[in-house]
Design a protein that fits this description.
Length: 347
């Protein structure tokens, strides 16, 4: 069968997918004829479903006479057939109010986002905090705590604040610290943190030759501790919700999935690989991680001042309610973007 589908096959694929998403039961031609007013006989529907199976859009579980969508069928459904559900006024109000009440706490508001997505979708939800490597340097402050310790405070345009205490062997005055702070701020303001090892840093080093050891320690704060910290900022909520889906009553499917959900590094890679503007749906084996290849993942990047800095997502079975989850993730990412941009403008 050609890759394109005629209107009759599109209608049948849509109702089969809608029915299977709702019931989790394989769908037969008689069920379609009885439940949906397609103006077609069961025999005609059966023939069309056989063609759809031959084309790779439907599959027939060996234990059932009914059929279910394949990954190819779900992809076609998501891209061309499903009717996107609009969020109702109550949902819009709750999402906004639940996030807005944490209007000064960036990490809390991001964590709350994953909780809200789980609450509304009943699937496991995730959020990746603003990636510090994509942030823009705003300000650094050096504070002398004692003769041998200095507090480094780094602030970025994403509202991220890093505090790090540096042990320093040589004595340094507060006047020298102020001078060094000013030098860093003049040279680095507006730079992307991923570029801080550039020629500007070499220029800074030449101007701070008298405090070479301190310079090396300060740069470590700007590079190593920040990069490490950013990978830990993954929030997960509702992992056990996946157990409520009949597909995962099978322990063979369940074990690799839960192993993935329990490993923060796996979640980090899953999210950071989808760090882009707009919503995205990955179905089944489109996901690189073996542990979630019986699942679908809906993600959407969120922005601060027009730059995509993080991502939120929902994970469910391939039988996921895409028409509900996709607009929910998109809208939540938009509200999160608006609120985080407001927070960072106030700082």
């Amino acid at each position: 069968m050609a890759s394109g589908l005629d209107e009759r096959k599109k209608r049948i694929l849509k109702v089969v997918t809608d029915d299977y998403i709702a019931s989790a039961e394989p769908v037969g031609s008689r069920t379609i004829a009885r439940r949906y007013d397609l103006g077609l006989s069961p025999a005609t529907i059966r023939n069309e479903m056989a063609d759809l199976e031959e084309g790779g859009y439907l599959e027939q579980p060996h234990t059932s006479a009914g059929r279910v969508p394949s990954e190819k069928g779900y992809r076609y459904y998501v891209d061309a057939l499903m009717s996107m559900r609009q969020l109702d006024e109550k949902e819009v109000e709750v999402i906004y109010n639940e996030l807005e009440k944490y209007h000064n706490e960036i990490e809390t508001i991001i964590h709350q986002t994953s909780k809200i997505l789980t609450q509304f979708t009943q699937y496991p939800s995730m959020a990746l905090g603003p990636q510090i490597q994509s942030a823009i340097f705003r300000h650094i402050q050096l504070v002398k705590l004692s003769e041998s310790t200095i507090l480094v405070i780094l602030v970025t345009d994403t509202g991220y604040v890093e505090n790090k205490v540096i042990e320093f062997k040589n004595e340094i005055t507060e006047t020298e610290l102020d001078r060094i702070s000013n030098l860093f701020n003049q040279k680095l303001r507006g730079m992307n943190l991923r570029d801080i090892e550039s020629n500007v840093i070499k220029e800074l080093r030449s101007e701070m030759v008298f405090q070479d050891q301190f310079f090396n320690e300060a740069v470590k704060v700007l590079i190593k501790s920040i990069a490490k910290h950013s990978q830990e900022r993954v929030f997960m909520d509702g992992a056990t919700k996946i157990l409520e889906q009949p597909e995962f009553s099978d322990i063979i499917k369940f074990k690799p999935l839960m192993k993935t959900l329990e490993e923060e590094e796996c979640l980090y890679r899953l999210l950071v690989n989808n760090l882009q503007r707009g919503a995205k749906v990955k179905i089944g084996r489109e996901n690189e991680n073996y542990g979630i290849q019986d699942c679908s993942v809906v993600t959407a990047g969120y922005e601060i001042a027009g730059r995509t800095v993080g991502v939120i997502g929902v994970l469910g079975p391939t039988r996921m309610e895409y028409a509900k989850v996709l607009p929910m993730v998109e809208y939540t990412a938009k509200i999160l973007s608006d609120l985080l941009t407001q927070i960072c403008k106030r700082r």
